[in-house]
């Protein structure tokens, strides 16, 4: 059950983050607020179902950081440093893309300046990020089956002759 929810939450993370990276109309402060609220509801549900050890919440980390990125101030060098230290699960390319797509929804917000984005790129240039922008939503985590040893010993097993397993010998 834990592995199923980890996979499901990864898919939610990948599809949502990919939509965020491809759609300018959703890159805003209010979307960041809405995402963070929805993610907290999912995390609370996991705690309520005692699934917090499943790793499902950790698969949402890139989406959490993208939501926080949308909510942070984006003006000063200190803001750039804060973004760089906060967004460790996002690649440089993803951070820059979100900042480029950021769209103010009211007159109190401003667009992210090119100078600010260049500052972010300068801070993150030493990162060794993968070159892909989008997450692979078809990625599958390996399924792990727990080993439960049998209480029956091998020497007590009788193999019927009808199975035609004469080549097996008891040692």
List keywords for this structure.
GTPase binding; 171 residues; Vascular_dev_regulator; mainly alpha; Dilute_dom; MYO5B protein
Helical element count?
Answer: 7
Alpha-beta content class:
mainly alpha
Main beta sheet strand tally, sense and closure: none
Mean pLDDT, to the nearest integer, reads 93
**Low-pLDDT residue intervals, each spanning 5 or more residues:** none
Shape: elongated
What distance separates the N and C termini? 39 Å
- State the share of residues found in helices, binned by percent: 40-55%
Beta-strand portion reads under 5%
Element order, helices and strands? Answer: HHHHHHH
> How many domains make up the coordinates?
1
State the assembly state of the protein chains.
Answer: single chain
Radius of gyration: 24 Å
**How many strand segments?**
0
Give structural notes:
One of its GO terms (molecular function) is GTPase binding. Pfam families: DIL. This is MYO5B protein. There is one protein chain. This protein starts with a helix and ends in a 47-residue tail after the last helix. The chain has one domain. The mean pLDDT is 93. It is an all-alpha fold.
Could you outline the blueprint of secondary structure elements for this entry?
Layout: H1 2-22, H2 29-48, H3 56-59, H4 61-71, H5 77-86, H6 92-101, H7 114-124
Domain Dilute: 1-126
InterPro entries: Dilute_dom, Vascular_dev_regulator
GO molecular function: GTPase binding
């Amino acid at each position: 059950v834990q592995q199923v929810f980890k996979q499901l939450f990864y898919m939610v993370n990948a599809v949502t983050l990919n939509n965020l990276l491809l759609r300018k109309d959703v890159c805003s402060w209010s979307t960041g607020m809405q995402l963070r609220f929805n993610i907290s509801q999912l995390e609370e549900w996991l705690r309520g179902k005692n699934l917090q050890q499943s790793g499902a919440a950790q698969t949402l980390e890139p989406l959490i950081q993208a939501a926080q990125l949308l909510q942070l101030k984006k003006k000063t060098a200190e803001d750039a440093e804060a973004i760089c230290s906060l967004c460790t699960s996002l690649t440089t390319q993803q951070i820059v893309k979100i900042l480029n797509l950021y769209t103010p929804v009211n007159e109190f917000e401003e667009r992210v300046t090119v100078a600010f984005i260049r500052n972010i790129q300068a801070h993150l240039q030493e990162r060794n990020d993968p070159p892909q922008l989008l997450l692979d939503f078809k990625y599958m985590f390996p399924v792990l089956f727990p080993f439960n040893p049998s209480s029956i010993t091998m020497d007590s097993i009788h193999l019927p002759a009808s199975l035609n397993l004469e080549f097996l010998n008891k040692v």
